[in-house]
Write the structure tokens for this entry.
Amino acid sequence: MFRNRFGFSAIILLLVVSVSVLCSKREPILPEFGRELCAHCSMAIVDKRFHAQLLTEKGRRYYFDSIECSHSFEKSARYSSGSVWFADFENPDHMIPEEIAVLVSSSELRSPMGEGLAAFSSIERAKDFLNTHKGSIWSRKNEKNR
């Protein structure tokens, strides 16, 4: 009887673990700032305003210290497709999906890799920033021209 209970308990435990893994969040999870390293350049992620992350289709999560590093990592094709998020420059504890984010390039921004890229939650927020700072709305076309 002990053997049957142990076997049943092991099966239940295995099911619970499997369900929790399969149902894990497909949303951004903030890294441990100052401890987590960038998956591209290996620098510690310390400035919340510029951080980015990628979650692959297979469930592997990559953290980046800057938008520039996430773009370089994506170009390297070291992963299968997935979801990418950028920290909202104005609210860095909030992550914006890549499809929605409006990227701004500004020489006045001191991003970790020095290209001055920041993400905003809307075109209006980006334009508000550009009303008081030098820069422009950035697109993937800009990256191809570099």
